[in-house]
Write a structure and sequence with these properties.
The complex is a heterodimer of chains A (113) and B (112).
Chain A (H helix, E strand, L loop, with lengths): L4 E3 L2 E4 L5 E6 L6 E8 L3 E9 L2 E4 L8 E7 L2 E6 L8 E8 L7 E2 L3 E5 L1
Chain B lengths: L2 E3 L4 E5 L4 E3 L2 E3 L5 E7 L5 E7 L5 E3 L5 E5 L4 E6 L8 E8 L5 E3 L3 E6 L1
Parallel strand pairs in B: 2-12
Antiparallel strand pairs in B: 1-4, 3-9, 5-6, 5-10, 7-8, 8-9, 10-11, 10-12
Classes of the chains: A mainly beta (113), B mainly beta (112).
Chain lengths: 113, 112
């Protein structure tokens, strides 16, 4: 069974450019999470979807960040415009709510120059 | 406020030695508890979890963890470390909702 799939695995872009990160959750999982990991702040929850609906986006840093989940098998996290301080590893995770266990993708390492 | 503390930022052990990674939590009630491992450049892999019942939990790769309510701890152990165990280990806690609180992680180095 395939795990959580994220693309791209690495992204290097210049300040001001739009960045789109993609995630495919585990089939059958109806909860999806976007996290950001940095050395300074550790793992931070950005947004949580349940049944494709955003439930909690209080962790989204600012209006430059947006996330969508158009269907149960796909989600995007978009940064527009990107800034150097957005450089981090972005993880997607999925779960079944009753299982309480989140399964993580391999992450996207983003570098904004 | 809910919190998870991993007091050791970096631990170095010799291959074959025993290992214990510490995790303390601060929650209103007993949370669900998890240990994840992150190898360099990889995502987080679930090692084990505790929801209720037996306080000694067995996980993958020979790891185990013990829940101690009196100490608000959930320490991870392995009797004999292998070089491939070198990674960063994260303790996490949840309170029955989607929110997980992660510790800052403990980096494990293994000396051959």
């Amino acid at each position: 069974d395939a795990g959580v799939i994220q693309s791209p695995r690495h992204e290097v872009t210049e300040m001001g450019q739009e960045v789109t990160l993609r995630c495919k959750p585990i089939s059958g999982h109806n909860s999806l999470f976007w996290y950001r990991q940095t050395m300074m702040r550790g793992l931070e929850l950005l947004i949580y979807f349940n049944n494709n609906v955003p439930i909690d986006d209080s962790g989204m840093p600012e209006d430059r960040f947006s996330a969508k989940m158009p269907n149960a098998s796909f989600s995007t996290l978009k940064i527009q415009p990107s800034e150097p301080r957005d450089s981090a590893v972005y993880f997607c995770a999925s779960s079944l709510p009753e299982q309480e266990t989140q399964y993580f993708g391999p992450g996207t390492r983003l570098l904004v120059l | 406020a809910q919190s998870v503390t991993q007091p050791d930022i970096h631990i170095t052990v010799s291959e074959g030695a025993s290992l214990e990674l510490r995790c303390n939590y601060s929650y209103g009630a007993t949370p669900y508890l998890f240990w994840y491992v992150q190898s360099p450049g990889q995502g987080l892999q679930l090692l084990l979890k505790y929801f209720s019942g037996d306080t000694l939990v067995q996980g993958i790769k020979g790891f185990e963890a013990e829940f101690k309510r009196s100490q608000s701890s959930f320490n991870l152990r392995k009797p004999s470390v292998h070089w491939s165990d070198a990674a960063e280990y994260f303790c996490a806690a949840g309170a029955g909702s989607y929110q997980l609180t992660f510790g800052k992680g403990t980096k494990l180095s293994v000396i051959p």
